[in-house]
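Class, look over these structure tokens:
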Amino acid sequence: MCLDSTLCPTPVTTRIEHHSARLKELETIKIALIDNFKSEMCPPSCNKAFVHQWYEQMNELLKQIDQTNQDFLQDLYKEFESYSQFLVDKLYKLKSTLGEKRYCLEEDSLDELLKKKCIPLMGEMQKSYERNLEYLDICFEWNHKVSLDLFLRSTVKFSHSLAKMWFTNGELELDNQAHNFKDGLNLVRSQMEVELKMREERFDIAVDALRQAPKEGVIAQALNDSVAQLEKMQISFENCQKQQNKLLKNQPVLLKECLNSYENVIYKFFGLERVKQEKLESGKYSDLEFLYFENSQFVVLPREQALNNYFGKATKKEDIDAREKLAATAYGILGETLPPEFSEPPTLSWDGSSIFANNQLKDFVNFNIVTCVSPLVPSSVGQDVTNFKKIIRDNFVLHAVKQRVQVMSQFEEEAASQVDLLEKEAHLRLQILETRARRAKEDIAHVRIAELSLHENRVERHLNAIKLSLNDARCNAVSDLETKLTESEQSFIVSLTMVKENLHLVNTSAK
């Protein structure tokens, strides 16, 4: 029997190959998840929901990897048990063969031979298998613990801190600043609209009084009042424009303060300092690591100075240790110091002696099966965490540098548009006010002309009515006079007739 096939049977080798291929598939998925997270973990897309979603996906994948390892370990146990039984059967078959072929005439001698030569060898082989499986179990457990406690939870806490920092100090502050700016503009405009509405009402009252004025003096006074209201409306709008221009001039200062505050928090969190030319020339930054983002230059501060800037200066040893552990595992300054239990993979303690002179069995225990799996054990996970943090650091610092240019450029465009809008609105409103003042005078003149024309027509109609009334009265008076004269004439004629008759009678009687 070949030594290699005995130490690592073909079914075991096949299982190892299949398991390694499966782990490589899962590792590819893991790397893709990590790479996607590192590229997307950047403002403004990063938030707690995004981090939590990635955590759930990664946690599920790590559980799947651990379950795959445990299933593989159980399969190895079964394969080695089956192979051990196969070897036992081979020993009994060997015993029978030796007895049948008379290589050993006494059965006790055969038993003694097996006990001294074969069974110890099988015992050592079985112990080797068990130690090997035990070591794999420890490695898998360590691998899962490192992936969860050091990599996943550390990076998630780190990312949660950054997402909260961006939301609190960056996104929320900028949104509040933008809302305050818009609210300020709207407040100034609403106050102007209220005052203009009041002036409009007073102007309408003055115009109504102007139209109803009975005398020229009253007309002139009402006209002056209406023009004064228009002038006050113009003053109100000019004041509104001045206040809005003042807000536009103050907004860049407030935006820069907001951006400076956010950038200071970010730079402290990552232990960076923006390079100043005078300090660069003085040699203060010598022997420090430089970082370049766009047109900005930074230095990585010494760890102790960075920790003091971020956490505050610590005096007691326990405070220093707590601060160092917090910075290295979860928050703040990028650290390379790892907790002792995560510093390196577990080692296998060997307390037995090899039965081979060339120590092949011992080498097998440490390396043969383990070498097929050990490349998948993240012995450099601490450095991976640090590199992970550095990539996200670069994302945030680069965004902070670009954000300043973008925010200020965007505001300059909005301010230019707002100023242009205000100027056009001011020009239009002033034209309207001037036109209204001119039209007020013209309208009043037209109204007065129309009212005089109407008054003249009313007087003429009144005179015509009076003439008609007088004519009617005259006609009626003449008719009555004629009737009375006719009646008087007829009465006089009757009286004369009676007098003539009486005279005739008298004359007749006298004769």
In short: The chain is about 80% helix and 5% strand. The beta strands are 272-274, 289-293, 296-300. The CA atoms of residues 26 and 65 lie 7 Å apart. Confidence is low (pLDDT under 50) at residues 348-379.
